[in-house]
Each structure stands twice: as structure tokens, then as C-alpha cells.
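User: Batch of two.

Assistant: Item 1 of 2:
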Amino acid sequence: MATLFSNNLSSLQMMNHRYQLEVCVNSFQSAWIAWQAGADRIELCDNLYVGGTTPSLGTIQQVKLKLPIPVFVMIRPRGGDFCYSEEEIEIMKSDIRWCKQLGCEGVVLGLLQENGNIDTQHCRELVELAWPMEVTFHRAFDLTPEPEIALKQILDIGFNYLLSSGRHAQALAGISHLEKLQKQAGEALQIIAAGGIRSNHFSTLLQQTSQIRFFHTGASISSPIRHLHQSIFSLTDQIVDAQEIQAMKQILLEWEMHSQMNEE
């Protein structure tokens, strides 16, 4: 597959950046495209139409073999809510062990009680099992009734990242709340802003935050389909939008350079 970036931009991408663009992907093909387009790291999932589930072992293995950027794997045994049975938790533990064995940099998970509060017992078990991998608590956080208390619990358990839209459908609408969460977390945890982030408003989002450094996007387009004219069943799927990722990465690089100049 051809490289989408110019040599100059590729060199900038390899620098150690304070600002990071995480791209959510649903296949090896999308992971490859995301990396080529400038992603700093990927969240690897399956079944994005239900919010993401754990991808296959083979997919994880190939992504780790071929991509030089950090891979964070979704640990979620099914769609639906985030209250899991003991059997499902055992599935999650098994998937975490495989991710660790394959050398993944991190995993992404989140468990809630029936009342919407963090399932601290099982989250702690999974985070301890995942070590030394890093762990992200995903957007199940946005369903918790008392976010400040939930964040305190997440910090106490030992999560490294929190993925959130600030309790709004779009990160742009929730950015003030994300700022408050990052101030509460300090340097102990990094908030990852998520929720409909696209290049047409990315600069506006950056201008409205002084705290957030990590951004998450699932920008995608319909995947090209072979044999579509002769298919008697649906072949539709989504694939990462390379142009959109490249545009967002360019904006982020320029913003970081601008911020560094202002600090000098």
C-alpha cells in the first residue's frame, strides 16, 4: 500500500508529540490506512455499529506485526450495556492475556453496575491483569450518574486514559466538561476527547481547550465493494477515511508547533 504522507510530514509524525491522534479502526485494512494517514495510535475493534467489540486474535496479531504505532485493543465481549456476567468477565480476562502475549501496548474496557456506577471490583481485576499494558476506560464513563466520583474511582483503580465526549454526543459540545475532568485528573491520567471529531471543526475544538492533548476519531467512509453488482446479500462495510485522518493530523501538527512557539 502506498504511503499517503509526504516525507516531510512523515518525519514530523515520528517525533515525540505531546498531542496525539488516536483512530478507531475495525479491521487490519483500516488500521494500515490509519497509520499511513498519520495516526499516532489506534483503537482496534470489531463491530463498530454496536460501539465496538473485541477483534479476532488473527487481526490483533497481524496489526501488531505490521504497524509500528501503539495498538490499544477493545476488550468487550458483546454489544449492548456494560454489565457483564462472570462468564463474560472470564472471556475478557482471556482476551487481555492474549493481547499481553502479542505485545499490545494497551487495552480499552469499561464495566458498570446496574445502577450506572463503575464496577470497581471487576475493573480492578482486569487492570491488574493487564499490567504492564496501559488501560483506557472507554465511553461507558459518559453513562455514569456522578462523573466526578466515577473519575476518582477510575484514578484509584489505576487506569491510564479515559475516553469521553464530556457527556455530550459531540466532543465539541462537551469540551468544557472534559477540561474540568482533566484538571481533576492532573498528570495521573490523560483524558482522550472523543465524539464526532472531524477536520471541519477540529481547529475550533483545539482553541477551546488548554488541557486536552489526546483526541480520538472514528472518521470513516463506505468501503469499496467488489462483486457488488452480482451480490444477493449485503456486503456493506466502513473503512477509515484516509483524507480526513490526514487533514486532522496536519491540523494537530500545526497546532502543536504553534503552541511550542508560544511557550518559547
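Item 2 of 2:
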Amino acid sequence: MPIRALSSRRRFLVLAVAACASAALPGPVRAQVGKPETITAGELSVLYNPATPPTSFIQNGQPAGMAIDLIAEAAKRLGLKPVFRAHSDVAGALPAISNGQYDVAALGLMRTPEREAVVDFTGPWYYGWFPLVVDRASGIKGYADLRGRVVGAVKGSIQEKWLQDNQPEIRLMAFPNEVGMITAINAGSVDGILMGSAQLAEAMRRYPQLVDVARTPTPYPNAFPLRKGNTTLRAALDKALADIVADGTYVRIYDKWHAGNPLPEPLYRDYPSLVGQRKPGEVGAK
């Protein structure tokens, strides 16, 4: 056999083997490395609370709020269409996520060790505190004045647990959401309420007879919960959140919903890129 013919045959065999090896690695699988797993392909199913402005609520018939804007922006960057579904029962939110009814929740929900046993969480997107709110005319100046009296908190919230653990002399009344809780204090059914800091300004604006008399810092960040074990979606959302912070989008969204307030200081630890955008304690333009 001529040397040239043998060389050509060898080249053909090498190319054939290479082609078979390439075919053995399925193209779709390679393309899906790192692709977020969602209930419906191309969509991000989002549970949200329709009554907690400015975190998540309904405005002009559409979901709105800081959590909504952040999740919508993250979904856009991941090439997913966000599908928002209202769910006002905070206590039922985590089971709904854990059972796979939704991909993620856009709520003012703190990432606590107890909750991390049930669901996974993204990185932090907000830090707050617990404001104790009372009627101005009540004369109540703090927790000491509420011993033996009734304070409301949302069922399943970290505020409810904090009251149980730290204020045993206060009688707790649990509510399904903050709307019912605020209605109760305005009706005189409770002597005080423990709510989320993100909702405080809106509550004060709508009900000027209310005032916060104590603020308790929380070490827990607000983070987006998702089904335990969905590592691809968690990694994708974490990357999107980091990018949203790094390019200044987070600050713009924060200022939209918390105008005149400085960024939560613990976020500078979680996202060092914030330092170059706004100094701790500095307030953005209103």
C-alpha cells in the first residue's frame, strides 16, 4: 500500500474517533451546565405578599416593591420570565416553596437557622430591625409598659418568635399578615404591634396616630427562599444579585423604595463593591 494512501487513512481514522468522542458528550447537557432549574422551563414562579409595601404589594393592579424589582431584574438577567402569584399567608410561604409550588418567594423574610432547615436562601438583599408600634395616645413608651398586655405579630414571622423568646410577660396575638395586625391596633384590639422595619415608613404615613417606641436590631438578613437542594437556581440568583449590586442597579432600586435612608450597613460586608458607590451612613437623593 502506498505511503500516501496509508497516511490519508490514518488521518481519516483520527478524525472519525474525534467525531465519535465529541458525539459521546451530549450537546444539550453541556449547554445546560449552570442553567437554573425552574418548575416551568423559561419561567421563574414567584410567590409574593400583596400587602407589605414597600417590600411587596399590589400597585395599579400589578406586583410592586423592592423585592419584586430585585427578583424581576434577576430573572431578566437569567433569561427567565417572572410569573408573580400573590400569597398573603406568610406562615404558609415556606411550605409552599419547600413543596415545589413556587421557585422562589419575594418577601421580607429573614434568613434564620430554623428556616434554613426547611428551605435554602439566596444571599442577603436587605437588613432591618423590629419596630414596636403603638398608638400615640396610649402613653406606652416601651416593652416595660406592655407587661400583661397584648402585642400583635405576624404568624410564623421572626418577630413572633422574638416576642415568645424575649418578652414572656407580654401576651402575643398572631395575625396572618400585617394588614390584619394594623387594623387590630387601629381598632384597639391590641396594645402594640411588632412589624418589619421596611414597612414602618408606609404605616406611619397612612396612620399618623401610630408611633414606634422601640427598635430592636436583627442579626438576620432578608434573603429570597427557594426549594432546598436547587443549587443551580440558588447559584444563578446569587450571581445575579451580586451583579445587580456591583453595577449600581441595587442602589437605584433601594433609593426608589427607601428614599432618604442610608443603605443597611451589614450589606457593605456582604457586597464590598457598595463602598465605591455610597459611603456607609450616606443618604441618596430623595
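The radius of gyration is 25 Å.
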